[in-house]
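Hi both,

Apologies for the delay on this - the queue was longer than expected. I finally got the fe (ii) ion-bound model through. Below you'll find the protein sequence and the ligand SMILES exactly as submitted, and right after that the structure tokens for the full complex including the ligand.
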Amino acid sequence: MALELPSLPYAADALAPVISERSLRMHHEGVHASYVKRLNTLLEGSDQAPQSLEHIMATGRGEAQACACQAWNHTFFWQCLTPWHSPMGQSLEHAISERWGSIEAFQQAFTASAMAHFMGGWTWLVYTPQGRLDIHNAVDAGSPLLRKLSPLLAVDMWEHAWYVDFGSDRRKYLQKLWGIINWSFVEQCLEDAVATSQGRRNLRPSWEV
Ligand SMILES: [Fe+2]
């Protein structure tokens, strides 16, 4: 059975004016869909039973692994954004402030990390196996899952993510993005990561494909 492109968790015009409908459709129906389509093409020639994206990410090689990572990363990224106001909860605010000193300091560190990308890539807030929050830059189709890091927040730093709405101004893209982050989703991911690391839970989050 072929992998399918997951629907966006909101309407294509819902993130405007930060991300326009044109940009979001191009990104979801164009870029994201192309990774799913290409992965299905690559898997067609395989006699293996259909596997989850996570399995292909963990065991695949070359283009198949890269396409699986990109498909997974994009699905996660859509969940990190919301048109509905989603303020940061107290426990997440406390965890971030404890790690970076303040929310503003975290955002500055995250932005600096994201701006350091030379080519395409992703910037992540992650929960490490050592029980620490961290910022992780992944180049190309990199994923925290391949490094045993639990993803909490993803920001797509590939050019296709911002050039339609922001031209070459990546910093403005990042500044505007803070206003549409789904902090309740980030906080749920942190709760899941902590519970899983403590052996209290091992559930597949509902957003996964
Ligand atoms: Fe993208």
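Main takeaway for now: The radius of gyration is 17 Å.

I'll put the files on the shared drive as well.

H.
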